Structure prediction request, 94 residues.
Amino acid sequence: MREGSGVSLAVGGIVTGFFTMLGTLIVAFTYLFVCVHAIVKLIGDADGHPDPTTVIVGFIALVSALVLGLAAALRFLGRSLSSRRRGSAGASER
Prediction:
């Protein structure tokens, strides 16, 4: 086996698992956001209609946060699984 195949398999497994769960996460977080938005709207402005712009911006923010969470997880996973770089003294011994 090649040297970096363990890291690539781990990253591939995380990405596959994330995209498998992405649909469920989007539905769950959107439901939570809409419920909280409805409660805030009820408390603050009971006569006003729901603002679709707020819901769309909230949905975009939720999806962006999920993708940024994936990127952060992959960065930290790749950093922890990759070998440490040696200084110039270790490179000259090869």
About this structure: The first helix runs from residue 5 to 44. The chain has a mean pLDDT of 79. The helical segments are 5-44, 52-81, 88-92.
